[in-house]
């Protein structure tokens, strides 16, 4: 990791938790204010920290550190971005309340995903950036009913629908509303997709009304919220990647602690879906680099298959090499994994079979209806192959070889997680 990346992580340790939750007393807002104010860190390095935080959409979390050093040139950037995010979040909050109340009055049950449902675990929820509203429904029928209801109340369907797992609408003010009929875009594993479909009703049945920034909203209960954040992270990781914001979501959620019954539900979900290895890695990263107290995750990580990672004094023994690889991957990806044109997918393996499986999976995502007709698969493969090289060479100006090379590098880390096994 670069020095400015380490400094940003240390700053986030201060920002993500209240003082009573901090496990590192030496890491305090006053310490960083002093360092910034006296110039011990250096303004050039601070500017790089601000730039990285901006690219990862975590800059508002640092506002309380910068608020007494307004003489630094970068303070204007921090203040301006924080004000923008806070105003945007209150707009989304009020709109979320309107939509969920409208749905409830018409007998349609829903829960909010990400956004407010993740922000509620932060010391200052307003600082967590959100750009749209995501709602999950029990099934496709309810999703379509919700879409019809919104369109009858001033919303409209987006002209282009780019996902198979949600319907995208737009509010009169131009805010995107994603109506999810599935928990995630289909993975390249039929068992996992069927499992996620089978447990979707649990998210609705175990919904809780939670006060967030003064507004009562329907969100998934703790274990389901935690599981969804993991699924959402994994979906982005297997594509272009994700940045620090999603790691911060995970850290603050776990910092809130889980009750015994919630832990049992969470472990059932991650074990049955085969994403336990992924949960272990992202949790390790949050302990190593974002200051998460390892005592708060012992019960979650404590599992018969992973007992060898716990030492005699009940301290979580981290797999530092994997955590370091992962945090480097996160910094490289930036917020939505769009830091470079050659970041596209990750395979769950490194052999030729993994490439073939991922190629076929991408074909099914691109042609969800046509791929059900097996006899036309060869034609669809040819279209995918030609389109892949044309779009990347002519439009994105990156070679297919570069994409495959980057995918192979990232896939080695994914292979060690033993996903979906």
**Major beta sheet summary:** 5 strands, mixed
Mean pLDDT: 82
Low-pLDDT residue intervals, each spanning 5 or more residues: 303-318
- Examine the coordinates and then state which fold CATH places here, giving the name of the CATH topology of the largest domain: Beta Polymerase, domain 2
The structural class is alpha+beta
Q: What is Rg? A: 22 Å
Integer count of domains = 4
Helix content estimate: 40-55%
What is the N-to-C succession of helices and strands? HHHHHEHEHEEEHEEHHHHHHHHH
What is the name of the CATH class of the largest domain? Alpha Beta
Q: Which word captures the global form?
A: globular
Name some characteristics of this structure.
421 residues, two-stranded antiparallel sheet, alpha+beta, five-stranded mixed sheet, Beta Polymerase, domain 2
